[in-house]
C-alpha cells in the first residue's frame, strides 16, 4: 500500500455519523474505489490489516467487504485476497447505438476481431426476422468485441445483401458497422430487442475469457432503417460480470 492510499484510509470513517460502522466502512471504501485510489484489479489489504488501520473489528470489515462484493465493487478470491472489480458497463436499453459508439462515449477504446464474415443463405430464424426470402442472400458477420482490450461481447449480425451490399473484413475489423451502413445511406432508426440470461459454453468462455458456465446476457435485436426496411438481425452474448442493462420507466 502506498503512503497516499494509507492517508486516504483516514477519511473512511466519520465520527459524527450515526450509521452502522460496517456501512461507514463500506461507503468509505466505495468512495476510494470510485476516486481510483484503488484502481481496477488492485488488491485491498487483508481483513486483519484493514481492521487495524480503521480501528474496527474484523467482523465489521468482513460485513463491509461482503456488501461491496454484493454491489459489484469487489471480487474475493479464495486463497488470493480481495480485489477491486473491473468497471461494469451500464447500457441503457432505450438508446439505439452501436458497440463502438457506445464505448467511445464512455471514454473506452472499442476494438475486437472478426471471427467470420460470410455471404450465405439465411437460416429460417434469420429470414423470418429480416423479412427476406429463404432463397435470398445475406451477410453474416461474427465479431468479438472489446473495450480497452478486454473482451466484452460476441456479436453476430445478419444483414440483407440486397439492401446493404457487400462488406469486407477490413471495413468492419475494429470499426463500427453502423458507421459503415451510414456511409451507404442506411441510417439505423429503431430496434426491438429481447434480453435473457444464459451461461457460457466452451467456445464463449474461451473467447470472453470467463469460466465455462459463467453468467452471460444474451440479446436478440431487429433493427430497421429510416426507410422502414429491416436492416439487421443481431444476436449477442455479453459478459454478465461486466454489463448492466437498464431501462428508464416513466408514469
UniProtKB/TrEMBL annotation:
* PANTHER family on file: MANNOSYL-D-GLYCERATE TRANSPORT/METABOLISM SYSTEM REPRESSOR MNGR-RELATED, MANNOSYL-D-GLYCERATE TRANSPORT_METABOLISM SYSTEM REPRESSOR MNGR-RELATED
Q: Molecular function terms in GO for this entry?
A: DNA binding; DNA-binding transcription factor activity
Q: Provide the HTH gntR-type domain boundaries.
A: 19-87
- A Gene Ontology BP annotation from the UniProt entry: negative regulation of DNA-templated transcription
Which Pfam families does its entry note?
GntR, UTRA
What are the entry keywords?
A: DNA-binding, Transcription, Transcription regulation
Please list the coiled coil stretches: none
Q: Which InterPro entries match?
A: Bact_HTH_transcr_reg, Chorismate_lyase_/UTRA_dom_sf, Tscrpt_reg_HTH_GntR, UTRA, WH-like_DNA-bd_sf, WH_DNA-bd_sf
**What protein name applies here?**
GntR family transcriptional regulator
Amino acid at each position: 500500500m502506498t503512503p497516499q492510499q494509507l492517508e486516504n484510509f483516514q477519511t473512511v470513517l466519520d465520527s459524527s455519523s450515526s450509521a452502522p460502522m460496517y456501512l461507514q466502512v463500506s461507503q468509505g471504501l466505495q468512495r476510494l474505489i470510485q476516486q481510483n485510489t484503488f484502481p481496477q484489479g488492485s488488491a485491498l489489504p487483508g481483513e486483519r490489516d484493514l481492521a487495524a488501520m480503521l480501528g474496527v473489528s474484523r467482523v465489521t470489515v468482513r460485513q463491509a467487504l461482503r456488501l461491496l462484493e454484493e454491489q459489484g465493487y469487489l471480487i474475493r478470491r479464495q486463497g488470493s485476497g480481495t480485489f477491486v472489480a473491473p468497471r461494469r458497463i451500464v447500457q441503457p436499453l432505450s438508446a439505439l447505438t452501436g458497440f463502438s459508439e457506445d464505448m467511445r462515449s464512455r471514454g473506452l477504446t472499442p476494438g475486437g476481431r472478426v471471427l467470420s464474415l460470410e455471404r450465405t443463405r439465411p437460416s429460417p430464424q434469420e429470414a423470418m426476422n429480416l423479412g427476406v426470402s429463404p432463397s435470398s442472400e445475406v451477410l453474416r458477420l461474427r465479431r468479438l468485441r472489446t473495450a480497452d482490450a478486454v473482451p466484452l461481447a460476441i456479436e453476430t449480425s445478419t444483414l440483407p445483401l440486397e439492401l446493404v451490399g457487400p462488406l469486407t473484413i477490413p471495413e468492419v475489423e475494429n470499426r463500427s458497422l453502423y458507421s459503415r451502413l451510414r456511409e451507404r445511406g442506411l441510417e439505423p432508426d429503431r430496434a426491438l430487442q429481447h434480453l435473457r440470461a444464459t451461461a457460457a459454453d466452451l467456445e464463449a468462455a474461451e473467447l470472453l475469457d470467463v469460466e465455462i458456465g459463467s453468467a452471460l446476457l444474451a440479446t436478440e435485436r431487429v433493427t430497421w432503417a429510416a426507410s422502414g426496411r429491416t436492416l439487421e438481425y443481431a444476436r449477442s452474448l455479453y459478459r454478465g460480470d461486466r454489463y448492466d442493462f437498464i431501462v428508464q420507466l416513466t408514469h
